[in-house]
Amino acid sequence: MLFGSDILLITDDVSLRQVLDLMLRDQVNSPVATISSGSAVQEVMRRAPRLVLVHDRVRSLDGLHIATEILKSCPAKVVLIASDASRAADAYELGITDFLMLPLRRQRVLNCLTRALSAAPFLRKKLHVISGGPAKPPLRFKSRHGFIFVQDSEIVWISAAGNYLELHCVSGTHRVRGTLLETCARLENHRQFLRVHRSIVVNAEYLREVRSWGVDEYVVVLDDAKELPVSRKDVIDEWVASTRGLPSEDGCCRIDEAAQISGRTIKTDPQPEARIS
Fold first, then answer.
1. Full-prediction pTM beyond 0.90?
2. How many CB atoms lie within 10 A of CB 241?
3. How far apart, in Å, do the first and last CA atoms of the chain sit?
4. Among 64, 49, 42, which residue's Cα sits nearest to residue 9?
5. Distances in Å between the alpha carbon of 25 and those of 61, 106, 180, 265?
6. Are 72 and 166 contained in the same domain?
7. Please, what is the Cα angle at 201 between 196 and 206, to 5 degrees?
8. Residue 25 burial (10 A CB sphere; 0-12, 13-18, 19+)
9. Does residue 277 lie within any of the structural domains?
10. What's the domain count of the chain?
11. I want to staple 80 with a disulfide (CB 3.0 to 4.6 A). Which of 34, 99, 108, 174 is the partner?
């Protein structure tokens, strides 16, 4: 399942928007936002989507010009919707490495969106990290060849791997020495980190959704649609309560009592959702 809020379409063609909506209606959780070509670059900067689809035939400016301006001003992934092969070739020379040819084909669109979104999975949070306030002192981890230093805001989730840990960060995955117990003690003052499983810690800043898969079975869904198992539901309950101050017994709000939490969705559908193969 793709998140419609991650995708922005720039076009002046109403029929193109309708075709795309029809193709994606069972693959996105919300409609894809569409804007016209006027002030497109400024709107992309304001919305900070992970993926921008740009139609090469727009009224106010050339679509290729808009696409290249977006590449210069925002690190969003850009895909050109090209009217012919020559326009696609021009786009490639300008640094736009992926494109969709008209007329659109559904499987090609789905493959393209999946690939493009995976290329920049945490763009919105990365922009927040770059443009945020004064940087905190980085966390130090011992690696095979010395030490690595990572800001807490760059860590998306942590998994245990024997006597090692895998830090899944915005910039990539790092294998470091240590145990999850030791690391949780170091992260005690970093309240955004939640130990949702005996071998997994997640950064709540990257948590998109908590989903029920049946009776007392849950997974957390990250911003890149990565799903991780939950074995410590009480931790999620406490986090849900602290995010919104929702009342419940023992000071925490149960997952199944909260429907919408500050843009993060708590779903209780016992059946897995359809996915793109």
1. no
2. 20
3. 10
4. 49
5. 29, 11, 41, 19
6. no
7. 95
8. exposed
9. no
10. 2
11. 99
